[in-house]
Amino acid sequence: MPSLQEAFLTALNTCGIIRFRDKRLDQSVSEHYYVAIPVDRNMSLLLCIITSQVQKRIDYAKRMKSIDGLVKVSKKDIPYLDMESIIDCNQTSLVPKTSEKLYWLEINTFKMYGELSSAVRNRVFAAIRKSPVVAEAIKQMLPSWKLR
Fold it and tell me: 3-class DSSP state for residue 33?
């Protein structure tokens, strides 16, 4: 049976939904859902937070003129969610998949929830490409998968 860390590294090889707690955040902050998009053998692009604070995130994005970088999703799109949420594609993190670089991941909170549907994946990729705050280098790293 693979270790949790091995499971995490395996999960980063699929375009899917993962959930874990970031140890760099305040202890009172619980686990969050993320979208993991593999970009090469050494890294994966984590789209930070899938948040249920929809209006707060929309208001912030409007102020920052980055509304195109948000993807609204519901339980219909991602069955694991309890309520309507936002995938914030404006906040992307390029994360090396080497275990020594994952010190911030509270590994015992990690869970893989499955692959992203092609419809949601297409919306996420489009939002990353349209985001005015995502670096062009990161946009260029997006896989050019045949989108079904």
Answer: strand
Domains of the chain: 4-140 (2.30.30.110)
The tens place of each residue's pLDDT in the chain, 148 residues long, gives 456 566 666 666 778 888 777 777 777 777 788 898 888 776 776 666 899 999 999 999 999 999 999 999 999 999 988 899 999 999 888 877 665 666 666 667 777 788 889 999 999 999 999 999 999 988 988 877 544 4
**What is the number of H-type helices and E-type strands within the chain?**
4, 7
φ, ψ at 125 (rounded to 5°): -60, -45
